[in-house]
Write a structure and sequence with these properties.
By secondary structure, the protein is an all-alpha fold. Helix content is 79%, strand content 0%. The longest helix is centred in the first third of the chain and has 42 residues, at 2-43. Residues 1-19 form the signal peptide.
């Protein structure tokens, strides 16, 4: 009789422990789930709700790094750059190996702070993580930002890596075209821009580079054609202003 009661008794005794364990498991998922919700709201442009979800994630775990870099993205889009910088820094300090946090902070530094040289180490930190799913993004951005920093040798290395990893990416091709232009290889620049044009219609930046390349090659008809398209599609752009002023270089 006693033996027959042991199993039911153990089951009863284990129920509170099991319930506590389940509660702990659910509690540990809160930061991740709230951060995922925040990222979804951010992607839809619902910044206020995104920040509320970030706050809930951090209330559950104030050391959850992904919540900080989503917070940084929201504040970046809100043009609150100082606050965004603090959020990104907090994210990478909590988890220096997290590739998305490093990539996003590097992108922010390069494209919003114009801290081109300072952005590169964060892209390289992202690339060091063997579990990073999209290394070509960081290779590309490292190349583009190195180009802006004037380091053409590093730019060539990173952009070629990105092109091998993901051929026919428009941004990578633009970077390679600009690199060739800066090196005086205008035919190579034209070839890269031709590859890019097959992928879709470019913006003002791409049209301006096409125009400058054709100008260097002495193709006046092509210069006129790109100039007309630039003024028609992007009349208020900085590139259209430079064209009107004749400032090709």
């Amino acid at each position: 009789m006693k033996l027959s009661l042991i199993a039911p008794l153990l089951l009863v005794l284990s129920l509170p422990a099991l319930a506590a364990e389940n509660d702990a498991d659910r509690s540990s998922q809160v930061p991740r789930l709230r951060t995922e919700l925040a990222a979804g709201y951010y992607a839809r442009g619902q910044y206020g709700v995104a920040l509320q979800e970030v706050d809930k994630a951090l209330a559950a775990d104030s050391s959850y790094a992904p919540a900080y870099y989503v917070q940084g993205l929201v504040y970046m889009d809100l043009q609150e750059f100082d606050t965004a910088d603090k959020s990104f820094r907090r994210a990478v300090s909590l988890d220096p190996t997290e590739p998305n946090a490093n990539h996003n902070y590097g992108w922010f530094l390069c494209n919003k702070r114009k801290a081109y040289k300072e952005s590169i180490p964060y892209f390289l930190a992202a690339l060091k993580n063997p579990l990073y799913n999209t290394p070509e993004k960081s290779q590309q951005q490292a190349g583009l930002c190195a180009l802006k920093a004037g380091d053409t040798a590093a730019a060539a290395t990173y952009l070629r890596q990105a092109d091998r990893a993901q051929p026919d990416n428009p941004q990578t091709l633009y970077g390679l075209a600009l690199l060739s232009y800066q090196r005086g290889d205008f035919e190579a620049a034209r070839n890269m821009l031709s590859r890019q044009a097959r992928l879709g219609q470019g913006g003002a930046e791409e049209l301006w580079l096409n125009l400058r390349v054709e100008n260097k090659l002495g193709n006046t008809d092509n210069v006129a054609g790109f100039g007309k398209e630039l003024k028609t599609r992007f009349p208020d752009s900085e590139e259209a202003r430079l064209l009107a002023a004749g400032q090709f270089d």
